[in-house]
Amino acid sequence: MRISCDVDIVNRLLPSFNMKGKGKSVRTQLSVGRKPGSDSKEGVVFLMLCTAKDRNGAKYKLKKNIENFFTKFVDQGKATVRIAEPPHDICLSKADPIQLKAFLSVIRLGSRGQDMGKITLSTLAPASAKQVEKLKTKMTVLSRKDYPLTTGFPSSIETLQILHCTLKRIDSRILALKRLKHLDLSNNHLSSLPDDFGELKQLVELNLAHNQLTSFSPTLCSGSLCTSLKLLDLSHNKIKMLPPHFCKLTELVNLKIDENELVGFPPRFGRLVLLRFLSATKNQIQTLPATFTQLSLENLDLFDNPFLQDGAATADSRLQSPSLLECAARAVKHHRIKYTEEDVPLQLYNFLNNSKQCLCGSVCFQSYVRYLARVDLHKMAATVTSLDQTGRTHAPTEAFLCSQKCYTRYQKNPYASFWK
């Protein structure tokens, strides 16, 4: 029975002598077994720890020699085994949670002296250099000839860079890297992302700049990326629209989407309350969504976009009694009914795809008020780059309001936090 993880051995007697341990974890192979040549049933069971400096290993007798187990964070691959003699705490980390639970169960059996006949124990032989080598956490591939076609990606990788490799699709082996935190796939030929890309549960930074992406799939905003992703770079692509679901990436701090074909931001963009850095230069943005005023940015750069020129606030009211078609469409959207082109009449299907989002969270179609106002970008960002060479820092915001009540409410306080 073996497991590899990081181990820090703490001597509990050191504090009584006013001394501190090194406190540094090292890669270790842990084994539970009997010494070579001992009886397979009656031999004493030991816990052996082998490191790169001590491949012969340190051995701890198990029977009646375990004082306690600390397993509060075992699902994170962490645990502590308290040895009675010598008075050591063996602190385990960066272990596979499933393997760690099984390994601790075997140690418990050994400490109680219970029958372990059905468990395959290890022979306590010295570890090889490969078994105790430090896990590789970073990997960089700078050309196609260096791409790992046969060797694969180490499962311990946390930072992966694959640049200038003319990748047209993302390798499925990358999606299996459960510890991946930083992924850089810039300067490739990617045109789309796989739907299961959002299952990289630990991903914090994603760089997809200088590719050929035309859209950002909504499925990527419904997985674990919603709670993990903090930096996203989509610069130098061909993206025209960000889906409404993009606003579910609520942990996002830094967004770069320069030099695309972006015509605007999603209506609920203001939900990204943690966003601090936004750069969207050289796109096709004419107006900002009204919820944009709810952001609290440190740096904002929207230079070289064809924003509408400054002018007085305008309201185009098209409020009317909703038709039966609009009532049906609002009901479908309100109850979040899933539909395809085969499920509903073609007229209703096309109608549903042209919905507008009111600031209150409701949808509207033909009955609405379109409100256009100018806002000073300094109200939502500490540092603002001018929109053009004239130094302009006022940008038009566009709001669609579903009723007279919402229209009146918005006129009174367009910066209110109750807008969704």
Describe this structure in words.
With 420 residues, this protein is of the alpha/beta class. It is built from five helices and 23 strands. The protein has helices at 97-112, 225-228, 324-334, 346-352, 404-412; strands at residues 2-11, 26-34, 45-51, 58-61, 66-70, 79-83, 88-93, 122-123, 138-141, 159-162, 182-184, 205-207, 231-233, 254-256, 277-279, 288-289, 297-301, 314-317, 356-357, 363-364, 369-376, 381-385, 394-401. The longest helix is centred in the N-terminal third of the chain and has 16 residues, at 97-112. The radius of gyration is 30 Å and the shape is elongated.
Major β-sheet annotation: 9 strands, parallel
Give the rounded overall mean pLDDT: 87
How far apart are the first and last residues' alpha carbons, in Å?
Answer: 54 Å
Which oligomeric form is depicted?
single chain
Task: Label the structural class.
Answer: alpha/beta
Count the DSSP helices.
5
Tell how many strands the DSSP assignment holds: 23
Proportion of residues in extended strands: 25-35%
Placed side by side, the strands forming the largest sheet appear as 9-10-11-12-13-14-15-17-22
- Which runs of at least 5 residues are low in confidence (pLDDT < 50)? none
Radius of gyration: 30 Å
